Structures are given as C-alpha cells and as structure tokens.
Amino acid sequence: MTTPPPWPPCPERERFPLIRGFITPDSDRPPPPGLSGSISADVTDPTEGKERIRVVETDTPWDLNVKWCVCGPTVGLMFGPWCVQVFIDDIDGVGLTNGPLGSACVDWARGVDVTPAPGSDDTSKRCFEHTFNFPANSVTAGVYNLVVVITFAPGTCQNPGRRADDILGYAVIPVLVFYDEDAPFCPPLPNPIPVT
Fold this sequence. Notes:
Layout: E1 19-23, E2 36-45, E3 51-52, E4 55-57, E5 62-71, E6 82-90, E7 99-106, E8 112-113, E9 125-134, E10 142-152, E11 164-179
Parallel strand pairs: 4-11
Antiparallel strand pairs: 1-11, 2-3, 2-5, 5-9, 6-7, 6-10, 8-9, 10-11
C-alpha cells in the first residue's frame, strides 16, 4: 500500500518569493568582499495601506517599491546615479503587456548611510529606495514575471558617465497575476493541448 502524498496546508501561508542577485567587481573574490550589494522588490496596494500583494485587480492602481544597498570599505569612494528599470513579461500567453514598464534615475544624494550592525565587517553601507506608482489599467489581465534591473554610473542623473558593467542588481517577482473581475470564468483555451 502506498502512502498518498500530503495535502497542502490550509490555510496556506502567503509567500512573496524573489529571485535576486547583485554583482560587483568583488563578487568573484574571496570574502570579505570590498564591495557587495543586495536588492529587494515588493508590489503593494496603495488603496489598502501598502499591503504586499501578488494579485492585482486591473482596475486599481499598484506600486512597486525597490530597495537596494551597497556595503563594504569601498562604498565611501563611490559617487554616481543608479538607473532603475522595470520590465514585464507575460507567462500565460494571454497577457498583452510586455517589455519596459518603468525607468527612474536615482542620484547618490538620495541614499541613506546606514550604521553597520555590531560585529559586522562592513565599514560603510548606503541604501536607496524608489517607488514606482502605476495607475489602474496599466497592465492587462494575465499572469506575468516582473523584473527589476539596477545599474550604476559615475556622475549625476543629469550628466551620467559610462555605465559600470560590473555593478548590477536584479530582482524577479516570478508570478504576478493581474485579475479582471469582469472577465469570463474559466474560458476555454484557444488551442487546447490534446490529452492522451
């Protein structure tokens, strides 16, 4: 007699997974690195007290909050803007929104110096934040991946230098559902896959 697989727990605890990474010139050096970074991204509902969400009703506004930090002894030598770009891609073959969704330049002066944790090897840490405010109906109904990419350049937003190819952060929200409550319930697929 085989044991049936376990049923999923109920209630299910809501999770907000991210695929993320941050490369610097020191990423491939042994620890402690001279420069490292981290990034996070959250979709929130501005009409519900900035509640974290992964399902957005198409007729309501939504926000994307991106936060990132660079840390290490070389942070004090850095100065320049960050380019924050947002891309969206349908994964269901139905959603009509695709490609660049937003872009912003964040000057170094907007960063906040953060005191390292006691016992930490970090000698300097600077953190940044940018929130994109998207209006209702900015994305059509469907299932999407949302990708944030940040890059760095010396200079300012008004006069940036050449982008640093070896400083880049990314965060992927692997599933973001835009839901249209007026859409038909469980519509048939246009090209169903035959069942054998």
